[in-house]
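User: Please predict the structure of the protein below. I'd like the answer in structure-token form so I can feed it into my own downstream comparison script.

Assistant: Understood. Taking the following sequence of 346 residues as input:
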Amino acid sequence: MSDPKIRIRNLYKIFGARAGKYLPHVLSGMGKSELLESHGHALGLNNINIDMQAGEISVIMGLSGSGKSTLIRHINRLIEPTSGEILLDGQDIMRFSQADLLQTRQKSMSMVFQNFALLPHRTVLQNVSMGLKVQGVTKEIREHEGRKWLLRVGLKGHESQYPNQLSGGMQQRVGIARALTSNSDILLMDEAFSALDPLIRTDMQDLLLELQTELHKTIVFITHDLDEALKLADHLVILKDGAVVQQGKPQHILLNPSDPYIEEFIADINRARVLRVRSIMRHSNLGNEYSGTIDPEANLEQVIGMAQGDMSARFEVIENNQRIGEVDVALLMDALVPYRPDTAKR
């Protein structure tokens, strides 16, 4: 695997007037509640270590107060850490001058906010092309790029409208088009879809995945919604009280929760809809008689449908016309039972 696009190492954030004074207490093991009760300082981030690969969607999730929004604002240094490193393409942005940091924010990173953050007195096209205007790009080029991305997100014909004339879903499409028009490598998305109605939210998730298939941006996506996280994430990071509880491939976390907190978090997930054949298939060949073939990216609901109640059904997993494994109903049923440490090993 290549070096990560974004690498976070030993990152701490303490909120308070004397954060540096109390950092040694945290390094010695003092937790969030004790720091607040004893010293009146809030522990925002506690020893964060994450690698985010180029071209992937890294989803940071957790409940309110877990530190996820604090974390994403460290990546572009809207919040300064108390201690730690944030490496962008191997360069520690903590060492950047203000001029270098400004250029990085303008050209390398774009941010999509929950509340859209559109300028109400500017048209849709003016909002979308704002990033290029700041970069000094000519009006002709920036409007050409803006129109191109508005078309791509389904807003052709709305260029001259103002944000208050658009629905919430349309305004968020403008926000995404604005981020794409700036042509940055990294998109930072802080609860970008949380304010939207469920159906519109689903549409926006689908749009993001469609665009990502084409563009391969490095996306850092913040959410408190596990279903959204599992749908979008290539790499999932779960926070609690400012610390990473578990991180990895979403399918692996579902099948191998490392902490009771994670077990509780994923307990109500529809595992059949989320888990993929690739995550549970075996690579051995137990026989040549199969009930059919299936794609490794099919979910377990599809396997159940194909089995049609036959408990002996077994399917050959085919990818690019090659056999890569097999899955049967026994494997499926085992995967559908949530993991518990006190149950028999799978």
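That's the full token string. The mean pLDDT is 92.
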